[in-house]
Design brief:
The chain is of the alpha+beta class. It has one domain: 2-Layer Sandwich (60s Ribosomal Protein L30, Chain: A), CATH 3.30.1330.50. The protein contains five helices and seven strands, in the order E-E-E-E-H-H-H-E-H-E-H-E. Strands 4-1-7-5-6 form a five-stranded mixed sheet. The longest helix has 14 residues. The radius of gyration is 15 Å and the shape is globular.
Length: 163
């Protein structure tokens, strides 16, 4: 068995043209929100954390090494590409995902109404039953940048077994 942990955080700013924020996408699902992540890619904080958890579990380079933010081809890139590559590397290394436990931390938007949509999307990308993926939404109780709505973060833990 192998365990991997991933974490990511992005600053949230007003969406363009008022600011540098991109569309707010979490787990491949777009949310209507006046603020969005400041990121080189699409800034999907959950896919980034999950990608790093998968890569970490197999001892592979992290997301920043594989998809550097200074590379022009990664500007605005769909984070689905990162997650698909991590899943491919997991399979090629002879492992399979047993389960993933994920947490998105932000004041708004609330995850509750869209959790099953996000899980279904990630299940499809990873080829893992939705029942093996857990997603929690938490606030930061108005503490620090996340609690003030100026940032969003995500954590992911994955368990792998030999395929």
């Amino acid at each position: 068995m192998r365990i991997g942990h991933g974490w990511d955080m992005h600053r949230l700013e007003p969406r363009a043209p008022a600011g540098a924020g991109r569309r707010l996408v979490i787990g491949g699902v777009e949310f209507e929100h006046e603020r969005g992540p400041v990121a080189h890619s699409d800034g999907d904080v959950l896919m980034h954390a999950l990608t790093d958890a998968l890569l970490g579990a197999i001892g592979a380079p992290d997301i920043g090494q594989l998809f550097p933010d200074h590379a022009p081809e990664n500007d605005g890139r769909d984070s689905r590409d990162f997650l698909l590559e991590a899943a491919r590397r997991v399979r090629d290394a002879g492992w399979q995902v047993v389960n993933a436990d994920m947490t998105v931390v932000c004041e708004r938007p609330k995850m509750g109404a869209r959790k099953s949509e996000i899980v279904a999307n990630l299940s499809h990308i990873l080829g893992v039953p939705a029942a093996d993926l857990n997603l929690k939404g938490k606030t930061h109780e108005r503490v620090d940048a996340v609690g003030e709505g100026r940032a969003i973060e995500a954590h992911a833990v994955v368990l792998l077994v030999r395929a």
